[in-house]
Backbone:
């Protein structure tokens, strides 16, 4: 009369063929051990800051602070400001690889942004995304093409520090922001770089133009030299002005309004440059 052997919740019939029974038991036992080992490995593996491509994980709740996207990675901003925002991006590959980003917002068709190879200065895009979400994806053709991104608009990024209207120079760290209440008369906003490094600033405030924007990007120690208002050479796309020197002034009369200033640093430059002495920003009446 045959007997039944139970193993791991399964029953095997022993019909007198001992070899077949042992083989079945061995296979079942091996599968059980393998499954248990896999389960232990999955549960005890420590959390990692990198994905299987050994790249930083995608930013799922990006707040505009600097981030580097590997190819096929994305950054998602849940909600943009209900006003102008300045987006800066730069191809940080040290190879001659053309870069490209795909930008979508509020279910729109993708907008493709080119990130030129070996650029020494970030590309700027200023827009009002109407408080919609914003998604950026690195879709560069060459896998060795990381792209540095950063953005600023009121309400995202670092909390602003008060900028006095007395003309006192205020040092600004990389990714730092300033805020001031302007007076109803002409005022001068001054920027001073205290190194030879590129210094990229964002200014937001004043009346909106026909497209709903009121943001300006200026760069000191720029490779483009002196461009923009007051010069024969127009500023690069997205910029209001650049200067080859280490200081710049911006005069305006916006009445009583709120002014924001953000410092993006030097973007992504290889080799990296550190701001040993931060630049300063000043605001005074004229």
Residues:
């Amino acid at each position: 009369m045959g007997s039944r052997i139970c193993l791991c919740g399964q029953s095997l019939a022993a019909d007198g063929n001992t070899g077949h029974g042992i083989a079945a038991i061995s296979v079942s036992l091996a599968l059980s051990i393998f499954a248990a080992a896999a389960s232990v490995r999955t549960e005890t593996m420590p959390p990692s800051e990198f994905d299987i491509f050994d790249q930083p994980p995608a930013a799922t709740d990006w707040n505009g602070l600097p981030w580097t996207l590997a190819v096929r990675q994305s950054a998602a901003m849940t909600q943009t400001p209900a006003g102008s925002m300045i987006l800066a991006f730069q191809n940080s590959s040290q190879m001659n690889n053309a870069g490209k980003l795909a930008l979508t917002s509020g279910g729109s068709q993708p907008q493709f942004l080119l990130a030129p190879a070996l650029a020494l200065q970030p590309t700027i895009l200023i827009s009002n995304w109407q408080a919609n979400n914003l998604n950026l994806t690195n879709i560069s053709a060459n896998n060795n093409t990381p792209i540095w991104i950063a953005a600023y608009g009121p309400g995202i990024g670092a909390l602003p520090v008060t900028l006095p209207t007395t003309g006192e120079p205020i040092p600004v760290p990389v990714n730092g922001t300033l805020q001031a209440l302007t007076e109803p008369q002409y005022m001068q906003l001054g920027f001073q770089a205290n190194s030879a490094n590129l210094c990229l600033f964002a200014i937001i405030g004043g009346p909106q133009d026909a497209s709903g924007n009121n943001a300006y990007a200026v760069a000191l120690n720029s490779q483009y030299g002196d461009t923009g208002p007051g010069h024969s050479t127009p500023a690069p796309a997205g910029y209001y002005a650049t200067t080859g020197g280490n200081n710049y002034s911006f005069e305006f009369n916006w009445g009583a309004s709120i002014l924001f200033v953000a410092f993006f640093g030097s973007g992504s430059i290889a080799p990296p440059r550190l701001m040993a002495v931060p630049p300063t920003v000043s605001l005074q009446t004229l």
Observations:
- The two ends are 109 Å apart (CA to CA).
- DSSP finds one helix and 20 strands in the chain.
- The longest strand covers residues 84-91.
